[in-house]
Amino acid sequence: MKTRIGIVTYARNEQDYLPKTLSAIGSQTLKPSAVVLVDDGSSDRTAEIATRYGWDVVSRSDRGYSAITTSALAEVVNAGLERLESARLDYIQIIGADDVLPDCYLQVVAERMEADPDLAIAGGRSCFDRRGSPYPRGLRMVRRRCWNPPRYPVIPGWETYIIYKVLKEGHKVTKYDDIVYYPQRRPGQNWNWEGLGRTMRSLGYHPLVLAGRLIKVGLRSPLNAGKTLRGYLAETSICDIADWIRTYQRERILASISFLSPMF
User: Could you tell me the pTM of the whole model?
Assistant: First the structure.
């Protein structure tokens, strides 16, 4: 039986990048069962291009600014997820409007997830991602039965939230470094440092994790570290699993210390 994958992407004035991204989806060895693009108030040919490639387009009104790096982007993605809700899917894949996938991407990730029923989220590695988190960043395939309902909370750190949510429920998350995809933009050009601080506060990050991040950022730019701290102190919303996230991070810190300690 064919594995059924639904894809959601989101775009605002992406006519220059979208054709290459959608063409790569059309060339996949495992064809998606449903494809939805949320047009977030574009003033260019974004919706027209998506329609030409056969995508289902959800049109949203122009709020006057881009939702990228804000919690409002969760609402944008959720509009696409709502459109997929009636489809009978095994997996949901979220992609950016400038992400270019190798032809085998969907098939390889899905096959590996099928081989491990405990895997709830998996994904490849961006060509710009040389180090860092063992968890996949923006490009993630989520097992549908582990995401019910398939919605993101509209909070800072909404993308990271789903990682911790499935870990809390006893599932696994992994990143495949040997499966590489290619964003057409170099990441970090418009990084929201205050948003990073708000994310850590909203998700309940352990103080040692916060301190480590501030030191790391501060070594490169004290100004950006100050923006991160300002965002952390300004945020008031705390997500429903913040206590669990803090405990999880503390246990990982203690495990690392124990591993590094001399054995007598």
Answer: 0.90
